[in-house]
Amino acid sequence: MSAMGYPDDELKDNDPTDEDVRRFSAPVVARCPDCGAAVIEEAEICPKCHAFLWDGPAPRESAPRRGVRFVAIALILLVILSLTGLIAIVLR
């Protein structure tokens, strides 16, 4: 034994177990949706960016369109109110 109480290097088993070989040699089946890193089949968290990899609800694609639609409606209302104000001023 060494001075710290650890077994000598000659006595240590440095070979991977069958479980280690099976676990760490899993094939890459996908890419992380956030960073594009290779992800193994059983991963729950991306090893690179630590994003969660679960099959939850997909993000809504219409969110940006909703913002554009809101801006368009607001601009149309602003134009209508401006024209109404101008017509009121001209007819006075």
Could you describe the 3D structure shown?
By secondary structure, the protein is mostly helical. The protein has two domains: 1-56, no CATH class; 57-92. The protein is built from two helices and two strands; from the N terminus they run αββα. It has helices at residues 18-24, 63-90, and strands at residues 28-31, 38-40. β1 (28-31) and β2 (38-40) form a beta hairpin. It is rod-shaped and about 100 Å long. The model has no long low-confidence stretch (mean pLDDT 76).
What's this model, at a glance?
This protein has 92 residues and is mostly helical. 38% of the residues lie in helices and 8% in strands.
Q: Kindly state the percentage of residues in helix.
A: 25-40%
Helix vs. strand class? mainly alpha
The biggest beta sheet reads:
2 strands, antiparallel
Shape: rod-shaped
Radius of gyration equals 31 Å
- Could you give the count of β-strands? 2
The N- to C-terminal Cα distance equals 104 Å
What is the multimeric organization of the chains shown? single chain
What's the number of helices? Answer: 2
Unreliably modeled segments: none
Q: What is the average per-residue confidence, as pLDDT, rounded to a whole number? A: 76
Question: Strand content of the residues, in percent?
Answer: 5-15%
Domains, number? 2
